[in-house]
Amino acid sequence: MAFCGVLPEEVERRQPFEIDVTVECDLHAAGASDDLANTIDYGGLVAEIQQLADDQRYGLLERFASDIAAVVLGHDLATGTTVTVRKLRPPVPQDLASSGVTIRRAKS
């Protein structure tokens, strides 16, 4: 649940979202060691993304997705990410199950 949108009802109440995040990183060490210290803890990453959803207000899905990508790329092992953010049941006259964006970002 997050605040994201420009319509009055979107600004006033949280809405449900579905977020997919793909993280690109070198996993050779984690694959060899079976040690969480050699990879990105996805439980911690999800908590960081949840914190964004709890603390921020977004007008555009594009900004929400960009902030999530920045969180992912803030991890040392991450080299790239693909983020999809879908607003479930968007408040539009048409009967849409969701609307969304997908972005791809990489470290320079």
Outline of this structure?
With 108 residues, this protein is of the alpha+beta class.
What does this structure look like?
It is a single chain. This protein has 108 residues and is an alpha+beta fold. It has one domain (3-106): GTP Cyclohydrolase I, domain 2. It has four helices and five strands. The strands form two sheets. The chain has a three-stranded antiparallel sheet with strand order 2-4-5, with helices on one face. A two-stranded parallel sheet has the order 1-3. Helix 3 packs antiparallel against helix 4. The protein starts with a strand and ends with a strand. The mean pLDDT is 96.
| Domains, number | 1
Distance between the termini: 31 Å
SS field, number of helical segments: 4
Q: What overall form do the CA principal axes indicate?
A: elongated
Q: Structural class, please? A: alpha+beta
Low-confidence stretches: none
At CATH level 3, the topology is GTP Cyclohydrolase I, domain 2
Strand order of the largest sheet: 2-4-5
- Tell me the strand percentage band: 25-35%
Q: Major sheet: size, sense and barrel closure?
A: 3 strands, antiparallel
Give the secondary structure arrangement, pairings included.
Elements: E1 3-4, H1 8-12, E2 17-25, H2 28-33, H3 42-55, E3 57-58, H4 61-73, E4 78-88, E5 98-106
Parallel strand pairs: 1-3
Antiparallel strand pairs: 2-4, 4-5
Helix pairs in contact: 3-4
